[in-house]
Every structure is written in structure tokens, then in C-alpha cells.
Design brief:
heterodimer, A: 260 residues, alpha/beta, Rossmann fold, 2 domains, 6-stranded mixed beta sheet, 4-stranded antiparallel beta sheet, 10 strands, 24% strand, globular, B: 358 residues, mainly alpha, two-stranded antiparallel ribbon, 16 helices, 4 strands, binds adenosine-5'-triphosphate, binds magnesium ion
Amino acid sequence: MSADDAILSVESLAVAFGGVKAVDDVSFAVRRGEVFTLIGPNGAGKTTVFNLISRLYNPMRGRIVFEGNDITALPAHRVAALGISRTFQNIELFEHATVLQNLLIGRQVHRKTALWEEILFLPKVRRQEYAFREHVEKVIDLLDLQHYRDSHVAGLPYGIRKVVELGRALAMQPRLLLMDEPSSGLNVEETEDMAFWIQDINQDLDITVVMVEHDMSLVSRVSHRVLALNQGAVVTVGTPKDVQSHPGVVEAYLGKAAHA
Amino acid sequence: MRFLFKTDYDQDIRLAKHGGHVFWYSLLGVALLAAPWLLSEYLLEQLVLVCIYAVAGLGLMLLSGFTGLISLGHAAFLGVGAYTEAVLVGMGWPFPLAMSAAVVLSAATGVVVGLPALRVRGIYLAIATLALGVIVEEVLTRWEDVTGGSAGLMVKSPTLFGAAVPQPVGFYYLCLGILVVATLAVLNLLRSPTGRAFVAVRDSEISSQSMGIHLAKAKTLSFALSAALTGLAGALYAHKLRFLSPEQFTVLQSVELLMMIFIGGLGSVHGVFLGALFLITLPQGIAVAKDWLPPAIGGAAGLQSTVFGLIIVGFVLFEPLGLYGRWVKIRLYLQTFPFYRKGTFRREKTFQKTERQR
Ligand SMILES: Nc1ncnc2c1ncn2[C@@H]1O[C@H](COP(=O)(O)OP(=O)(O)OP(=O)(O)O)[C@@H](O)[C@H]1O
Ligand SMILES: [Mg+2]
């Protein structure tokens, strides 16, 4: 693989909390257009890798390069502007706002109006609102959220909130989407929908997806490549099938089970 | 019951959502314009106070209700606005100019007071703003050359184009006009990206960042705008009081402002007005009630504070959404009568957040 088709590359990333090496010398490269999945037992460091990429955590060592730009030292809000959006393992929505407002916040990075123009609500601001809404409506259609458009997030069931969070991330029109456990807490039917959406997002919207996921049938179904982490270190990278049968991966999960 | 079928984006964006809104707000507008003929001079004075408190409340609501930053120091901005206005008008500045200076200076103070907000949240921020409020009060007391210290400061009447603004009618229209403009500005902001960013910061700092919102910038901006509005109210307040002394801008005043928006309903612009109306009418109500109560209670010192406190506790326990929240429920009850169900507003128990960021 040449360096050019990597949309994201992570080089020797490391971070520790107290004595725990949450991520220890992790390197990988994600190709443009693929669905790349991180798997690993609980506490393997998957979410920490996401938090490092989205710059919520500072790495102690290593480099993160997105589309040729070194983002290792950027503040979190700049990362979004470059085209990386994400969802959270334990949904982080704007609870006291409506679904529509949540999705509109996804358009924040595309804001072109100045404060004073907004205070006067000039025609330019209104046109921008139209454009934002037009895009957000597409996301609403894609994810079948029409029914919930004006509902407050705080009152929605878990499964819907999960979809709203995905919608918010999509509203940003990212080129790279990080999804932390998209199927956790969803029932079979909702997981089915999620699998379709991930494929649609990847193929029709041309968004590269990096996800963390435990449901192996979902993983094998949608991912092009899988990376297995254990105790902060890479065990192996490869096709879903190869990774699942890799002795190190089997041991990581079984070892965990044996301890439990 | 009214169903709104949404067919174009403007329906969400425009301020009056349906014909009913247009009708009722027009009626309110006419009533407010006619107020000098409808109300006694005393009641008009009270209405002026409602307008002034509402402008200050808009500022505080933007910060605490919409950005989630609780301030216990807003009397400081009211004070900076009032004293700037008084001093500059005293030096012969025309009042629109003095008022602009008051707004700018308050906003600048707001940015300074907002600095701790970049590091601390919640109760710590409340304490930091409290401290800064005390500092401003102290400056107003000590800087005698300019503020007159605790001896106080007379405020000249506002003049426009060489003529004095007639009291109380002219001044009422001035306050009303400023309130309308301030309200429109806040409403516009709230339906634009900046306002949404404030709400995002209030509800989740982590995901706001990941959505591209610069936390420090958003919070500083919110503080500046909030202080600017409250400073503007301060400038009007100076003319209303006609005599300033630092005791008018103490922590107690800050608490009163916070209670006002809390009782009105945090996170709603309607709440500001309901809260202001409540804050101004309550003492009147208590004064009237005093005559009816047995002298042991009616004559007791601190009756007003006690009633105030009880009302706050009542709201905390029974109606955290404030007067506006209560009104929404009553309206729904009337619209759906007799089908209203008690559990309508009970929220589904949502999952507990245990491990944030994970
Ligand atoms: N902010 C933090 N402070 C302290 N320790 C942390 C922090 N974030 C993660 N850790 C630790 O780092 C390790 C990896 O955690 P991480 O959340 O990345 O695991 P994970 O692979 O996402 O697990 P799961 O499947 O349970 O979500 C764990 O031991 C965790 O306790
Ligand atoms: Mg995790």
C-alpha cells in the first residue's frame, strides 16, 4: 500500500493513564474508501485510540496524519473542520435540543456567517439556514428520522438516539467517520438497519469508516479490514476472516474469558 | 389542538410560527404601545422596571440558560453599565453615545469575568463569578473620584438632540424600544449557528468540540454578549434610579437576577419576560397581602425574602422548567381538554451515563 491511498495513518501512538498503558505503540493505516474495524476485548484501548484521533486525549508519543496533514497537535475543534466526525460509545447528544437542532449543529463547521450578520439575521444567514436544512433533510431521509425531527432528544428511546448521533456526524459531511460501537444496545432489527446504513454511508456517500465493534457478524459483514487490539497493542491486521481465526486474537478473547 | 404541517424551511426559521402567534403578539404590541394611556403613572413606572429587568434577564439567560454557565456576578455588569452611563452623561455626552460606551465596557468586563469559565464549570464557576462581582462592587465603592463612592452619584436625565427625554412616557418608550431590539437580537442569534453552538456547549462539551466548536471562543463570546445586554440594562437602570450607590449592585442583586430567569424558566426567552414580570409584581403582591395578614406575620421583617425563598424552593421541587414550563402544560391541557393525560410530560427513563467519554 502506498502512502497516498491512506486517508488516515497512525504511527507508534502511545498514551498511559497512571500506570495503565491504554495504548502502547499502535500503528495502522486506513485506506480511503474502506470500512476499517477495531476489535478487542474490553479495556483493549479501542475508544482511547478514537479519543486520540479526535484529539480529546493527547498522545505521549506518536503521530496522527489525516490526508497528509499532521493533526497530532491540533485542538479537537480543528480536527472536525478538517473532515473527521465521530460518534461516542455512550451517546453524547445535545439532550435538551430537538433532533433537528442536533443535526444542524453538525453543519457548524460549514458556517460562513459573521456574528453581526447573525444578530441581524441578514438574508445571507437565512440562505445559509436553507442550505443547512436542505442537507440535514437528506440525512433525515437516509436514516428515516422524519418522525422524530422535532422531538427533544432527552425523551427518545436508546435506539433512536444512537441513530440521531450517527445523523449528526453525517450532517458534517465528513470524509472520515469514526463510529464507537454502532450496534451496542441495539436490538436485532436495529442492528440490521445499522449494518445497511454503514454500507450506504461507505459506498454511496464515499465516506471512509473506522469503527469499533463487538458484534462479529456485523464486523465480518461490513468491514474490509479488521485490526485486533489487546491491552493497548496491535495483535494483527487483516481481512475479517483471517483476524477472527488468528491465534493471538482467539487467545486475547479466551484469555479474557478464562479470567472471568 | 393545533397541528403544524411543515412544508418549507421558513416555518422552522421564522419567529412567529403560526397565525395565532402573529395575532397574540400584535395584540401585546398594541397594548404595550398604548400602556401610557391605559396605566396609571405608578404602574407605568413598574412596567419600565419590568422592561429593564427583562433586558438584563435576556443577557443572563443567554449565558446561564442557553450556554449553561451559571453566573452569580451579573450585578457587576449592571453596575458597570449604570455607572458608565451616569458618569458619561454627567460629562455631557449624549445618552446614545454614553449607552454604547456602557455596553462596550460591560462586554469587556464580561470577557475578563469569563476567563475563569474557560477552566472551571458549575459551582466553581458560580463562586468565581461571585468573587468577581464582589470585586466590582468594591471598585465602585472605593473609586470615589469617579463613582462618588458610598455617598452615591446623581444621574442626569437623558437628553436626545438637545431636548430632555420626557419622563415617564418618553423614557418608557425608550426602554420598550430597547427591549424589543434586544429580544429580536437574541432570537436571531438563537436561530443561527452561534446560538446553536451555545446550546451545544451547554449540553455536551465533549461532543461540541468534536463537532468543530471552539469551546473557549463560544464561552467567551457568550460572556461578552451577556454582559453587554446586562450593561445596557444597567444604563437604563441608572436613569430609572436617578441616583446610584454601590449597594444597588451587590451579590443580592445578582441572586435576584438569577432567580428571575430561574423562576421564569431556564432556557426559554419567554421565561425572561415571565420572570421579570414576576420579580417586579411579587413585592407589590406582598405589600397588598400584608394588610390582610395577621400583624404578627404581616409586620415581620424579612417577609419578602421568606416568600421569595419559599417560591424558589417550590419551583425547584415542582416545576424546574419555571413559569414558562407551567404555561406550556396549562396550554396543552386546554387544547386537548378533556383528553389530557397526567403522564404526558413525564420523561422516559433514559439510560444513566456512567462512563463519560467512553
Ligand atoms: N480518561 C481515562 N482515565 C483513566 N483511564 C482511562 C481513561 N480512558 C481510558 N482509560 C483506561 O484505558 C484502558 C483502555 O480503555 P478504552 O476505553 O480505550 O477500552 P475499550 O477498548 O474501548 O473497551 P470497551 O470495549 O470496554 O469500550 C482501560 O484500562 C481504561 O480504564
Ligand atoms: Mg470503548
